[in-house]
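Hi Y.,

Following your request, here is the sequence exactly as I used it, all 270 residues.
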Amino acid sequence: MIHVHHTLLLLAALLLSSASHAHKRWLLPTDFALSDAETVTVDFTASNNIFYVDKGMPLEIVTVTGPQGEDIPLANATQGDRRSSFDIPVDVPGTYRIAAGGPPMYFVSYQLPGQAELQHARGSLQQLKAGVPAAATEVKFAESHSLIESYITLGAQTTPARPEDSSGLQMRISQSHPNALYSDEEAQFRFELDGEPAAGLTVTVQPDGSRYRDDPLELGLVTDDDGTVTIEWPGPGRYLLEAGLEQTAGDGDIARRYYSYFLTVEVLAP
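Below is the corresponding structure, written out as C-alpha cells. Let me know if you'd prefer a different format.
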C-alpha cells in the first residue's frame, strides 16, 4: 500500500466524495479590494458551512501570483487542524491571483479475495499500477483535477496572466472582473475544460452564512455554448462559486476523471 501525508489523504477524500456529501473548499482573503498597500490574511479550509472553518487544507498546493506575473511566497503560513492560513503583502498595484491546485491526483480501488471492503490508494499512476496485488480484481484507476481560486486587487483591476497549463476546469477572466462585482449588476464568468469552452456546465452560487439558516440559498446556473454563466446577485456579500463534473474515460488506464472548481468573491453594494 502506498503511504501519503495525512493532509493529502484529507484532500483525496474531499476530492472523491460524492457531490451531495463533499465538503466545499475555499480560499478566503480578509480583503478583496484595497486602495492602499496592506498585508492580507487568507484562510484555506473546507466545510459544509460556507466560510465557517472546519478542516485545514494543505498549503503546499497554494500559489500566489502578483500583478506582474511574479511568484509571491506565503508569509506566516500556518497549517492547523481546523484552519490553514497565510499572509500576502499586497503592495504592488494590480490584481493578485491566489490558487490551490497543482498536477492531477491519481487513485486506485480494487477488491482482494476474502476482503469485504474495497482497497484504496493514492500516488503517481506508475506507482499505483506497480502496487496493485496480482490477486486484485475490479481494479479501477481515477484521475482528479481540482482548482480553488480567489483574487485581490490593489488600486485598478488588471487581468492576471493565464496559467501555462490549460488542463482541467478553469475560469477565464473576460467579461467580469472578480474584484469589480456589484449587487445591481450582472456578472459573467467563462469556464473552460482543457482549454475549450465548458458548455452545459452546472455552476452553483452560494452566499455566506449557511450555518445560520435552513435554506442554503444556492443558485443553480448552467453555462451557455461559449462556457459563460450569467449571475444576478441576490445582494451584497461574500459568495462561493462551485463547478464540477465527472467523466467516463474513453480508453487507457483511467476509468473516471473528476473535475472541481471553487471561486470566492465579494459583491459590493451599488
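The chain has two helices and 19 strands.

Thanks again,
Q.
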